[in-house]
Write a structure and sequence with these properties.
Length: 180
């Protein structure tokens, strides 16, 4: 357990300086099930970036969706392999809303369904907390040339959604949206 926690802290320290591991819970290690459930709770001091009195937080996904060089082409003549290192994952991130601040937006949902991958990200508020749930299911490990443009467009939308930051505004801030 001590070595496990040390390894988790080392992994988290690559992205979060001064991280403090609060708890690690792993369910049903003694059973042979296809599902592994675990929870890691950690605290990162000074995690949020500051900009003009606002606070900005990036969500700390364990398995981030990153841009792919294979999607840099205008079209493909051969099928493309889609690497996947897991069947499906669901990650839940909870952020405490800093005292004196409110979120710039309410609940949101983004969903993409492709033959290769399913992506869903939803967020909701409870008193003083923002919870974001992200689920990814990998299905088929290849993209045909006919599917390439759709896959490229939708995958890049998933990357953008996955990298989305959370904006906290000082209470009382008035936001005016531009007229269309």
């Amino acid at each position: 357990e001590k070595d496990r926690d040390k390894g988790i802290i080392e992994m988290l320290s690559e992205n979060y300086p001064d991280v403090e591991l609060r708890s690690v819970e792993i369910d049903d290690l003694d059973t042979l099930t296809p599902t592994l459930r675990f929870s890691v709770t950690f605290y990162v001091p000074n995690y949020m970036m500051e900009a003009g009195g606002f606070l900005i937080a990036r969500l700390p996904w364990d398995r981030q969706i990153v841009p792919s060089a294979a999607l840099s082409y205008a079209k493909r003549l051969q099928p493309m392999h889609v690497p996947s290192f897991h069947d499906s994952t669901t990650e839940i991130v909870r952020l405490n809303v800093p005292p004196g601040f409110v979120l710039s937006e309410g609940t949101s949902v983004a969903r993409t369904v492709l033959p290769q991958i399913t992506y869903e990200r939803s967020s909701y508020m409870s008193p003083g907390k923002l919870t974001v749930v992200r689920s990814i299911g990998n299905h088929r490990p290849w993209v045909s040339p006919e599917e390439y443009l759709t896959y490229k467009t939708e995958y890049n939308k998933m990357v953008k959604e996955d990298r989305r930051s959370i904006l906290f505004m000082p209470k009382g801030t008035v936001v005016k949206f531009p007229k269309k």
